[in-house]
């Protein structure tokens, strides 16, 4: 068994892994960026090391820096969590070359399943049903047009290395294909360094049903049943549940076998998920395999009693699974709501900020996986997740009532979250009927009705006297206690920073000071970076025309004209940073 494991991630999944390591008696090594100095995963670990600046490319994705920390810390293994380097075959190989265990599948399996085109071809050869489409990359828009005519519209354009909703665009009609092709390729290049795309038939409103598998190095592969993840926005999951509402025992056995066959086909090891689409008439198609632990693994843990993260670690250490397929039982019903820092009333606009107050729900059957406390910053540099709220009860109806109660107890101040959205979904007839709720999520009027008053912001100038300090020596984190008076004017017992003394100048804001648009001014609804500007000053635009794309919290957000007219002012350029309320354009 390992004695020390490095957790190459941040946020709630890093805390989750550290807890599993604690229970196994294994020391944990955390890594962090400059933006995450005070994060909970840093405080929870046995040791913590600074990687670099806030942007992920300079910290959590910096493989050379991670390898340096692994050597310095003496870690024998690395748990990648999800996202970042979790499905990076090159990283797994670098660890193998360094004699360090990757807590995940072999690089060959990541390669096989990491490319969606390769995975589709492999699954087709193994007899696993796939969504009709291409198994080869599509090189150009012209080629895509011909293939789309054969498949039939609507078609989905997907990045070959994509996942988590990134690099996924839909062309409902032929005139939308070029935009979908360009968008999917652009996101594929940006998030996965691979602009390759392929095409699939787009199923308008299928159930998104996935199966959890575990495979050890001794030939045992089991499935832990299915999860339904159909409630999504922008092809990213919001609510998950297990078991799936429309899956009976016969279908569970059938799709479970598909998942096991898929894992065996690539000599898989560790925890993985076979994602699929379930049509209304019961057809099940392989979609992709996620070669890592999923965000929503918690609902499967709740209904099976299997600690998936612990099993990952044990499998990586060479231990055989202590149970077989016949030992798996499913009990009750579990639901997970992702509590993201987003404003659903503004079409799920990212809402980064500092948490002023935080109180988690509790009681029977309630679990919260989180990496934050009061005072934690939800940075625009990373994904918007604040916490995951998981409940369990005897059946779906009881679990729904428990979730509604837990959401009511959950108190988060200082940032807007999806709690109002989740409350509304849990109270809807669509949820009660086991529907995908897509009609609600795509209804702008319904979403606007979820608006809540702006949260009160924490006072920037409030003085807090602290005697405990955290220092970094040669990039390693230490906690120390200093006995003496704190310096005046300090927020935490140290000298005031120059950044605090000299705030950055703000862009012109609309009179209300908040996101949105009023009069002639098109204001940014969020903080982020201008990724692309699609209009020019002096151009005529129609209401709803695409003006720019703002990248925030790992998502591209399309900003459209709020009225028809002429672009009188355009004070933005690609690469600019903007905050909520900044003027993007003036349309007269």
Automatic annotation (TrEMBL):
PROSITE patterns: ATP_GRASP (PS50975), BC (PS50979), BIOTINYL_LIPOYL (PS50968), CPSASE_1 (PS00866), CPSASE_2 (PS00867). It catalyses: N(6)-biotinyl-L-lysyl-[protein] + hydrogencarbonate + ATP = N(6)-carboxybiotinyl-L-lysyl-[protein] + ADP + phosphate + H(+). Its cofactor is biotin. It is an enzyme of class 6 (ligase). Residues 489-523 are annotated as: Disordered. Residues 506-588 form the Lipoyl-binding domain. Its EC number is 6.3.4.14. SUPFAM superfamilies: Glutathione synthetase ATP-binding domain-like, PreATP-grasp domain, Rudiment single hybrid motif, Single hybrid motif. Residues 489-502 have a biased composition (Low complexity). Residues 1-446 form the Biotin carboxylation domain. It comes from the Bacteria. One of its GO terms (molecular function) is metal ion binding. Residues 120-317 form the ATP-grasp domain. InterPro entries: ATP-grasp, BC-like_N, Biotin_carboxylase_complex, Biotin_carboxylation_dom, Biotin_COase_C, Biotin_lipoyl, CPAse_ATP-bd, PreATP-grasp_dom_sf. Keywords: ATP-binding, Biotin, Ligase, Nucleotide-binding. CDD domains: biotinyl_domain (cd06850). NCBIfam families: PRK08591.1 (NF006367). This is biotin carboxylase. The lineage of its organism: Bacteria, Bacillati, Actinomycetota, Thermoleophilia, Solirubrobacterales.
């Amino acid at each position: 068994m390992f004695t020390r494991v490095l957790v190459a991630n941040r946020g709630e999944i890093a805390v989750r892994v550290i807890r599993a390591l604690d229970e196994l008696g294994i020391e944990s090594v955390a890594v962090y960026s400059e933006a995450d100095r005070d994060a909970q995963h840093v405080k929870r670990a046995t040791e913590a090391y600074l990687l670099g600046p806030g942007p992920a490319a300079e910290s959590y994705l910096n493989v050379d820096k991670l390898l340096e920390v692994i050597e310095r810390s003496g870690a024998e293994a690395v748990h990648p969590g999800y996202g970042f380097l979790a499905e990076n075959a090159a990283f797994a190989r670098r660890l193998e070359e360094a004699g360090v265990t990757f807590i995940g599948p072999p690089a060959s399996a990541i390669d096989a399943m990491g490319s969606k085109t390769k995975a589709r071809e492999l699954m087709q050869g193994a007899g696993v049903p796939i969504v009709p489409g291409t198994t080869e990359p599509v090189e150009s828009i012209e080629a895509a047009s011909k293939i789309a005519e054969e498949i039939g519209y609507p078609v989905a354009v997907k990045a070959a290395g994509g996942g988590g909703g990134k690099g996924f665009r839909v062309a409902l009609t032929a005139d939308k294909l070029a935009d979908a092709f360009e968008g999917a390729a652009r996101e594929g290049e940006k998030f996965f360094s691979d602009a390759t795309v392929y095409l699939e038939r787009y199923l308008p409103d299928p159930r998104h049903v996935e199966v959890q598998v575990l495979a050890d190095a001794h030939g045992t592969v089991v499935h832990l049943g299915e999860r339904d993840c159909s409630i999504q926005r922008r092809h990213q999951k919001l609510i998950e549940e297990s078991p799936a509402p429309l899956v009976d025992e016969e279908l569970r056995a059938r799709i479970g076998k598909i998942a096991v066959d898929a894992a065996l086909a690539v000599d898989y090891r560790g925890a993985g998920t076979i994602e699929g689409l379930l049509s209304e008439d019961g057809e099940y198609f392989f979609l992709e395999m996620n070669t890592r632990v999923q965000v929503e693994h918690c609902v499967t843990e709740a209904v099976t009693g299997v600690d998936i993260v612990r099993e990952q670690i044990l499998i990586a250490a060479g231990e055989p699974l202590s149970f077989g397929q016949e030992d798996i039982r499913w009990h009750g019903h579990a639901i997970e709501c992702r509590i993201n820092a987003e404003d659903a009333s503004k079409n799920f606009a990212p809402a980064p900020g500092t948490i002023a107050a935080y109180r988690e729900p509790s009681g029977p059957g309630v679990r919260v996986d989180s990496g934050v406390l009061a005072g934690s910053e939800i940075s625009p540099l990373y994904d918007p997740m604040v916490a995951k709220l998981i409940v369990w009860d005897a059946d779906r109806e009881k679990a729904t009532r428990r979730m509604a109660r837990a959401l009511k107890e959950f108190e988060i101040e200082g940032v807007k979250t999806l709690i109002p959205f989740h409350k509304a979904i849990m109270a809807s007839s669509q949820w009660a009927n086991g529907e995908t709720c897509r009609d609600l999520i795509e209804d702008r009027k319904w979403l606007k009705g979820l608006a809540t008053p702006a949260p009160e912001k924490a006072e920037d100038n409030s003085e807090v006297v602290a005697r405990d300090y955290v220092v970094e020596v040669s990039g390693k984190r230490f906690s120390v206690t200093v006995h003496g008076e704190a310096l005046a004017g300090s927020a935490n017992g140290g000298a005031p920073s120059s950044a605090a003394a000299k705030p950055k100048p703000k862009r012109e804001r609309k009179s209300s000071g908040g996101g949105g648009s009023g009069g002639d001014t098109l204001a940014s609804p969020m903080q982020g970076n201008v990724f692309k500007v699609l209009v020019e000053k002096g151009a005529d635009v129609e209401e709803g025309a695409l003006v720019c794309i703002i990248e925030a919290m790992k998502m591209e957000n399309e900003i459209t004209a709020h009225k028809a007219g002429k672009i009188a002012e355009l004070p933005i350029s690609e690469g600019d940073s903007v905050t909520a309320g900044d003027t993007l354009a003036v349309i007269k």
